[in-house]
Amino acid sequence: MFGFRDIDIIRAIVRHGGFRAASDATGLAQSAISRRVRHLESRMGITIFERDGRGVRLTAAGRRLVEEAEILMAQRDRILGELTQGVMAGVVRLGVAETMTHTILPRLLTDLRARHPQLRFEISVDTSEQMAQMLSGDDLDVAIMMRDQAPRGIHMTPLPPVTLGWFASPVHFSLPSPAGIDDLAAQPIVSFPKTTLPHRRVLDLLSPGRRQAVAVHGSASLATVLHLVGQGFGIGTIPHDIVRAWPHAGIEEIRTRPEARLPDLDFAICYMPERNDEIGRELTRAAIEAGSN
């Protein structure tokens, strides 16, 4: 309906007090300015200026148009300034494995907010398998996920490993110390979701040669796992950092024999470089710093 040049001309008319003065200020012919205003009024179906013997003045509709247009002009100037001055702004779609929401994510986002206050984040907490599909389908810009499940063509930077332990409520469970694989397999177990790599690793560790299936319950919520283990539903496989962050969960680590220890979780920050190189590099920097603190 109208362009920024139309608004520039209307502002010049208002600022300089008439069409002739606006012509002198802009270098446009007075006839060209008059013609442009008439065409704009025709397109919009409104009267922008009232003309009388003393000059011109804005109508009520004209004042509303100028007021709203000033907001658009300010937004235009802000966007141009951000783009030309290297300011990071806009929405970043960030996928995060739930383990990371309790560890590096708060420090990462606090760092980015301080450096780039114009950024906004849409955070999705999901399994690494789901995030790999979302990265490939351009439904995420950046993801913090299990390294082994990153899709092809991804730019991947490893993060410090996350160590896992076996935990139980001492009120409800009393296991040998150190506990072996058979001792653990005899208990109900709460672990990561069924489709995830950590869940499969628990089954691979406990199941070989066993006649009766091991009872491994999966949950996508670490808070739920902590609560279930604390209430005595079962023993749990939980990252050490999570337990340290929840000191009142009422659980203790089970000392195990070497063969019963769980492998570390290897995470990485990932993005598709052809689509999200600049923001990917900045989030990678922040994630590495957050992981080292």
TrEMBL record:
Keywords: DNA-binding, Transcription, Transcription regulation. Residues 2-59 form the HTH lysR-type domain. PROSITE patterns: HTH_LYSR. It comes from the Bacteria. Belongs to the LysR transcriptional regulatory family. InterPro entries: LTTR, LysR_HTH_N, LysR_subst-bd, WH-like_DNA-bd_sf, WH_DNA-bd_sf. This is LysR family transcriptional regulator. Signal peptide: none annotated. The keyword DNA-binding applies. Pfam families: HTH_1, LysR_substrate. CDD domains: PBP2_LTTR_substrate.
